[in-house]
Amino acid sequence: MSLNLAPSAERVHIGFFGRRNVGKSSVVNAVTGQELAVVSDVKGTTTDPVQKAMELLPMGPVVIIDTPGIDDSGMLGELRVQKTKQILNKTDVAVLVVDAAVGMTETEKALVEVFVEKKIPYITAYNKEDLRKEDLTPKDSALMDDPNAIRISAKTGFQIADLKERIAHLAVVKDSQRRIVSDLLKPMDFVVLVVPIDSAAPKGRLILPQQQTIRDILEAGAVSLVVREHELKETLMRLGTRPAMVITDSQVFEKISADTPKEIPLTSFSILFARYKGNLESAVQGAAAVEALQDGDKVLISEGCTHHRQCDDIGSVKIPRWLREYTGKQLDIRLSSGIEFPEDLSQYKLIIHCGGCMLNEREMKYRQKCAKDQGVPMTNYGIAIAYMKGILRRSVELFPEVLAKLPE
């Protein structure tokens, strides 16, 4: 996948971590060959995580993340450390930068424990090799025994190329066999995509799930037709051939189901992306938790991206309205967006997540695991809407293994 075609969610995320003033930002700049991060001798120069999507040989498309010092202090420092910990949830490969003159401290050792706990492949880069004395000192013994360690100098470039090679070796190879929809299609199949163009739609472009789905249809040699919700019925009449399927934006699911003949398979972008991210079955099962909601129950509606919310936003307005109408209960709806996903989910009776198109596989799985470990049902926008509109069975008919586990 080329640089121009690789969304951030599909890129390997490489995070650089460590204490303040160990040279993290200098190492980032040396590895990328760019002045990506601001460098100074002042502790805590990096105040927030800095992310950059780029092409990095020999790995290809990646996201580089420079983080604040994990030992930052004070109230603002605690917030920065919290941001750094959140970055860990989407890190595919971690680079722990250590000052070679100081060696591993308890702070770095604690970070390594987190890497191991989260099963994040990591490498320890002992920076400032140019300032180190000739002979190994007792504190260097840990480095000599650590197969994950490498000595480098961001200043002189010493072993930076080797560091890049070792990062590439650890990098998670994205599963090239995963498909959004192309595995369900044959060459020259017709697929109709329903894309509402309303006040919430971005100006002059389609949103990422729609773009990625169109591209995947092209990969199958199939034909995509993109229409608005009020154009579907006439489009199907004029088409002259039965489409292989109709894929709709979730917010118009009910209307599109009514306008699509029963013999034409129907699903949504959210459902396809739940399958693509590997959580379709659990999300379908999680939707049934809507039935058990009671007055005062807390429901978390979470989005993986941040955007300006419109007057009839699907996450903050439409889904809460449909939930209250369906259940007849006074629910306490909470919202989260971007990386702000709560660690403690125990207060919630249900989580309704977006399709996760902006989240990489590791972060999406982290959120699913958090919910599962804490016993909180989790579903997504399209599946929850289909359930509440009474069309869930129809919307997953394309996936017999999932359909078989749904109650009649």
Proportion in helices: 25-40%
Global morphology: globular
Order of helices and strands: EHEEHEHEHEHEHEHEHEHHEHEEHEHHH
E-strand count: 14
- Uncertain stretches of 5 or more adjacent residues: 38-46
- Mean pLDDT over the full residue set: 85
Q: What spatial order of strands do you see in the largest sheet?
A: 2-3-1-4-5-6
Task: Specify the biggest β-sheet.
Answer: 6 strands, mixed
Distance between the termini: 41 Å
- Counting DSSP H or I runs of 4 or more residues, the number of helices is 15
Please state the structural category: alpha/beta
Query: How big is the Rg?
Result: 24 Å
Strand content: 15-25%
Question: Explain this structure to me?
Answer:
- By secondary structure, this protein is an alpha/beta fold.
- 34% of the residues lie in helices and 18% in strands.
- The protein is built from 15 helices and 14 strands.
- The chain has helices at residues 24-32, 74-88, 106-117, 141-145, 160-170, 208-219, 232-239, 253-259, 269-277, 280-286, 314-327, 361-373, 381-388, 392-395, 400-403; strands at residues 12-18, 50-56, 60-66, 93-99, 122-127, 149-151, 190-194, 223-227, 245-248, 266-268, 298-303, 332-337, 348-353, 378-380.
- The strands form 3 sheets. It has a 6-stranded mixed β-sheet, sandwiched between helices. A 4-stranded parallel β-sheet has the order 8-7-9-10, sandwiched between helices.
- Helix 11 links the parallel strand 11 and strand 12.
- The protein is globular and about 75 Å long.
- The two termini are 41 Å apart.
